[in-house]
């Protein structure tokens, strides 16, 4: 009786899983040309970063999700568990970069933060300059590869700074991401060599604060 029940349950799970439509991730288009962020970030870096690195995360994420769906349909929990690392790494890479591109804008189009975002920055950090100094210091200090984040702590209603390793998304810190800065070497090495502080300090010149404000509004 137990075996029969288990067989029916496994069959039911397999039917449900196999009937799902697999939604695949797609490489987003940029709102600007590869060379539009110069001189802060070179066109060569942007092309390699977007068309090669980000595209690889998308490809590998879709492959991992396809394998996961197949394993789920079979009730193969061991394989489902083993795929979690690839899903987190490549999915995180896709999510992080999709926000990163929108967080940036050509220098001519960038304006300082204003309105509610600026009020919260002044309240939680003292000033925009103090936010930038703290964010830069923590982000530069990331060991190896990772990201620096400005996020909203929904529990407190305050802005906070966090860092993540590798491609871990900001949500793993408990914050809702508003601004992310990629400090993997592929984001800056061709231009800034191993001087990460120069890259992080320079990137403030191309932060799209309008997008950050839109992320804040959406988060609230």
From TrEMBL:
GO CC entries: mitochondrial matrix
Identify the domain of life: Eukaryota
- Which cofactor does the UniProt annotation name? Mn(2+)
Domain (Manganese/iron superoxide dismutase C-terminal): residue spans on this chain: 113-214
Is Manganese a UniProt keyword of this protein?
yes
EC number(s)? 1.15.1.1
Query: Which residues are listed for Mn(2+) binding in this entry?
Result: 49, 97, 182, 186
Task: Write down the top EC class of this protein.
Answer: oxidoreductase
Where, subcellularly, is it found? Mitochondrion matrix
Q: Does the keyword Oxidoreductase apply?
A: yes
Q: Where in the numbering of this chain does the Manganese/iron superoxide dismutase N-terminal domain appear?
A: 26-105
The main location is mitochondrion
Reaction catalyzed? 2 superoxide + 2 H(+) = H2O2 + O2
Recorded hits in Pfam families, A to Z, give: Sod_Fe_C (PF02777), Sod_Fe_N (PF00081)
Cite the InterPro entries for this sequence: Fe/Mn_Superoxide_Dismutase (IPR050265), Mn/Fe_SOD (IPR001189), Mn/Fe_SOD_BS (IPR019833), Mn/Fe_SOD_C (IPR019832), Mn/Fe_SOD_N (IPR019831), Mn/Fe_SOD_N_sf (IPR036324), SOD_C_sf (IPR036314)
Tell me a Gene Ontology molecular-function term this record carries.
superoxide dismutase activity
Enumerate the UniProt keywords alphabetically.
Answer: Manganese, Metal-binding, Oxidoreductase
Q: Which family does it belong to?
A: Belongs to the iron/manganese superoxide dismutase family.
Q: What does this protein do?
A: Destroys radicals which are normally produced within the cells and which are toxic to biological systems. Destroys superoxide anion radicals which are normally produced within the cells and which are toxic to biological systems.
Q: What is this protein called?
A: Superoxide dismutase
- Source organism: Micromonas pusilla (strain CCMP1545)
Classification lineage: Eukaryota, Viridiplantae, Chlorophyta, Mamiellophyceae, Mamiellales
The gene coding this protein: MSD
């Amino acid at each position: 009786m137990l075996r029969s029940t288990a067989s029916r349950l496994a069959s039911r799970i397999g039917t449900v899983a196999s009937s799902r439509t697999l939604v695949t991730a797609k490489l987003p288009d940029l709102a600007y040309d590869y060379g539009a962020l110069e001189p802060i970030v070179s066109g060569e870096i942007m092309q390699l970063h977007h068309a090669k690195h980000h595209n690889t995360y998308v490809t590998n994420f879709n492959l991992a999700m396809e394998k996961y769906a197949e394993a789920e349909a079979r009730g193969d929990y061991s394989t489902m568990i083993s795929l979690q690392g690839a899903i987190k790494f490549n999915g995180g890479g896709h999510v992080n970069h999709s926000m990163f591109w929108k967080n940036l804008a050509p220098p001519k189009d960038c304006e300082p933060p204003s309105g509610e975002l600026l009020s919260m920055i002044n309240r939680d950090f003292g000033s925009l300059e103090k936010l930038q100094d703290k964010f830069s210091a923590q982000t530069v200090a990331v060991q190896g590869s990772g990201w620096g984040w400005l996020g909203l702590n929904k529990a407190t209603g305050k802005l906070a700074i966090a860092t993540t390793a590798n491609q871990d998304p900001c949500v793993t810190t408990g914050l809702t991401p508003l601004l992310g800065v990629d400090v993997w070497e592929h984001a800056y090495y061709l231009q800034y060599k191993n001087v990460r502080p120069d890259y992080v300090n320079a990137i403030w010149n191309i932060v799209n604060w309008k997008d950050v404000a839109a992320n804040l509004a959406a988060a609230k």
